[in-house]
Amino acid sequence: APTPAMDEVTFKSDTVLSDVHLYTPNHRHLMVRLNGMGQPVFLSQFKLLWNQDSQTDSGAEGGRHGMGPAEQTSASGPGSTRPPLGSGCSSDATSQEGVGARLDEDGDLDVERRPRAASDAEPAEPPRDKVHPTILTQEEDDPLADEARESSPQDVIRIEHTMATPLEDVGKQVWRGALLLADYILFQRDLFQGRTVLELGAGTGLASIIAATVARTVYCTDVGADLLAMCQRNIALNGHLTAAGGGVVKVKELDWLKDDLCTDPEVPFSWSQEDVSDLYSHTTILLAAEVFYDDDLTDALFRTLSRLVHKLENACTAILSVEKRLNFTLRHLDVTCEAYDHFRSWLQRLERLAGGRLRFAVEPVEASFPQLLVYERIQQLELWKIFVEPV
Q1: How far apart are CA 387 and CA 363, in angstroms?
Q2: pLDDT tens sequence across 196-252
Q3: Environment class of residue 236 by beta-carbon count within 10 Å: exposed (0-12), middle (13-18) or buried (19+)?
Q4: What does 258-305 look like in DSSP terms, one character per residue?
Q5: In the chain, how long is the greatest CA-to-CA distance?
Q6: What pLDDT digit, counting tens, does each position of 157-168 carry?
Q7: Which helix (H) or strand (E) holds 317?
Q8: CB under 8 Å, gap of 24 or more: what pairs does 253-258 form?
C-alpha cells in the first residue's frame, strides 16, 4: 500500500485530539518531523501576556481569550481572528433582529440563502485557504523563529507536540490543564522562586518550562523515551525563557507503576545518585496537569504521590490541574463525570488518612487569577492544592 502523504492527518476510531488545537487552523503550526512512532510532530507558538493589564480580570467566568496557541489566525488568512467557541458571537440574521429582522408572511424569520453554483466565475467572497500543516525539512529556516525574534523572545514559548494520537500517547499533545497550571505558576511566582519542583506526567513539558522561569531546579518527569525526548527538545527550544530566571530543567523517567527511580546509567533519562539525593532533600512543590482521565492512571498517580512525599525531607505542596469532562455512559444512561469523580474521591481519601506521620490538607484554587497565556479557560478547568506536612 502506498505511504500516505505527510500532510494527510488520518483520524481513526481511537484517535484523541486536544481541544487546544481542535478549533485552531493548522496552517500556522509547522510540521517539523516524524517522531519515533511515525507520528507527525508540529511546532506551535504560545503567546505570553506578561504585561497586559487587561488580563487581570480573567477567570472561569470571563477568561476566554482565545482558542489555543497565539497563532489564532483563521483559515481565511493572516490578520483575521476567530472568536472563542461559545463566546456569544451572533449570526448576521440574529444580529439584525434588534434593528428590524425580516419576517415572511407567516411571521417566521426570513433568511436569504444563495447557493454557490459551480459555474460562478467570481464568488461574492474570497475563497478560504485550504488548511494544511506547513511541512519543514531539517535544513529549512523556521519562520516561527523569525516571528519570535521580531516580537520579543521573552513573550513566546515554543512547543513541539503532536495533534492527534491514540489514547496511550495523549501526553504528546498540549492540553488546557497544562496551560491553566502554567498560568497559576506565572501568577504565583513568589511561591516558586528558588524552589525545587517535581512535575509528574509532564507530557510536552510546558508547565515545567514555565516553572523553570522562577524555580531553581525542575524535574520534568514522564515515561517513554520518545515522549521524554520531545520534552528535552522543548526545553532546548525555550532556553531563552529558563536562562533568564536561572532555572534548570532536568528530564527524567518516573514510572508510576514502579516503586523506585531508575538509576541505571545505561537507560535514557535515568536518575543519577546526585539527582535522587537533591530530589528528596529539596523538593517542596509537586505538579501534575491533566493526568486524571483514566481511573487506573489516577490510582497510580496518587500512590506515587504518597510514596514520594513520605520520602521528602521537607513539607510540600502538590498543585493538580484537572478538567471535569462530561461523558454519556451506557452504564448510567446519563451524563456523568466518572474520571473526575474518581479524582475527587482520592482527594477525600487523603484528607481522611489518620495515624500516619503526614497530614494531608486539600483545598480548591479559585480560577480567577490573571490569564497570561492565550487559550480558552473554561469553567470545567480546576486547580487543587494538597498541603503535606508532618503530624
Answers
A1: 8
A2: 999 999 999 999 999 999 999 999 999 999 999 999 999 999 998 988 878 899 999
A3: exposed
A4: SSS----TTSTTPPPHHHHHHHHHHEEEEEEES--SSHHHHHHHHHHH
A5: 82
A6: 999 999 888 888
A7: strand 316-323
A8: 253/221, 253/222, 253/223, 253/228, 254/200, 254/219, 254/221, 254/222, 254/223, 254/304, 255/223, 256/200, 256/201, 256/223, 256/297, 256/300, 256/301, 256/303, 256/304, 257/300
Can you read off the three cell numbers belonging to residue 90?
451572533
CB 389 within 8 A of CB 359: yes
| CA 357 to chain CA mean position, Å | 35
Give the number of residues written for the chain: 391
pLDDT per position as a tens digit, 311-340: 999 999 999 999 998 776 666 566 678 999
Contacts of 330 (CB under 8 A, 6+ apart): none
- Cα 81 from Cα 63, distance rounded (Å): 17
| Sheet with 134-135, side-by-side order of all strands | 134-135, 30-34, 40-47, 156-161
Let me know if 2 is exposed, middle or buried by CB neighbors in 10 A (0-12, 13-18, 19+).
Answer: exposed
Is pTM, for the whole model, over 0.85?
no
- Which CATH code is given to the segment(s) 170-390? 3.40.50.150
User: Which residue in this structure is represented by grid cell 507536540?
Assistant: 161
Give Cα 363 distance to the centre of its chain.
Answer: 22
Residue bearing cell 513520605:
310
Contact 181, 383 (CB under 8 A): yes
Give the Cα separation of 30 and 49 in Å (integer): 22
